[in-house]
From TrEMBL:
<keyword id="KW-0808">Transferase</keyword>
<dbReference type="Pfam" id="PF13649">
    <property type="entry name" value="Methyltransf_25"/>
</dbReference>
<keyword id="KW-0489">Methyltransferase</keyword>
<feature type="domain" description="Methyltransferase">
    <location>
        <begin position="40"/>
        <end position="136"/>
    </location>
</feature>
<protein>
    <submittedName>
        <fullName>Class I SAM-dependent methyltransferase</fullName>
        <ecNumber>2.1.1.-</ecNumber>
    </submittedName>
</protein>
<dbReference type="InterPro" id="IPR041698">
    <property type="entry name" value="Methyltransf_25"/>
</dbReference>
<dbReference type="GO" id="GO:0008168">
    <property type="term" value="F:methyltransferase activity"/>
</dbReference>
<dbReference type="GO" id="GO:0032259">
    <property type="term" value="P:methylation"/>
</dbReference>
<dbReference type="InterPro" id="IPR029063">
    <property type="entry name" value="SAM-dependent_MTases_sf"/>
</dbReference>
């Protein structure tokens, strides 16, 4: 099966491959923010999109797996029916390296563990940056390149791992100010060593350029 979306459809059809709830770094950095409009890039089955909506965000959630989107939509619909989802999620099936978001429309753009081949990764970053509103933030969390030999888990293909230099350069060229770029250890249950995550926070100046 050579179609990446079809492979992910198959994985999601067997159940969610992700833990419940948000990644700890995403949680710590986003929870203090005032809810607004967010874009969850390559959202999978929506663990972050639904968490954001639970905080009151209005979320655009995009992924190329139709099965993942269906799972996320069903979960969000159930929570909304139960009256415990104050925000809303707008779900979309699309390739994030080609999908063109509404320019400067999101107070928060989230890329959580979006691992693509280099050309696709840069295109996705450029499109994601274009969606950041004046004063808004882009948050990227991904498996750093150093994780391959010094960390735990994550993709085993170096070309798809996060390169901080490429990310920061691309975001700067896209008009964002990088306010944080570092590699953080993340404890993994049952593992002898921590995972190494690249974390980048960038902001579009309120006085846009």
């Amino acid at each position: 099966m050579s179609n990446p979306a079809a492979r992910w459809d198959e994985r999601y059809a067997a159940g969610s491959p992700w833990p419940a709830g948000p990644n700890a770094t995403v949680r710590d950095l986003v929870a203090p923010l005032t809810p607004g409009r967010a874009r969850d890039v390559a959202c999978g089955d929506g663990r972050h999109a639904i968490w954001l909506a639970g905080l009151g965000w209005q979320v655009d959630a995009v992924d190329f797996s139709a099965v993942a989107i269906a799972r996320g939509r069903a979960r969000a619909d159930q929570l909304a029916a139960d009256g415990v989802l104050p925000g809303q999620v707008r779900w979309s099936v699309a390739d994030v390296s080609q999908d063109v978001p509404e320019p400067r429309s999101a107070d928060l753009v989230l890329l959580a563990y979006v691992h693509l081949l280099p050309a696709q990764a840069v295109a996705t970053l450029e499109r994601s940056a274009s969606a950041v509103a004046p004063g808004g933030l882009l948050l990227l969390v991904g498996h750093d390149r150093s994780n391959l030999h010094h960390g735990t888990g994550g993709p085993q293909r170096p070309e798809v791992l996060t390169d901080l230099d490429v990310v920061t350069h691309t975001l700067h060229e896209s008009g964002l100010d990088v306010v944080r770029a570092e590699v953080l250890p993340r404890e993994v249950e049952g593992a002898e060593r921590a995972a190494l995550d690249a974390v980048v926070v960038a902001q579009r100046p309120a006085a846009t350029r």
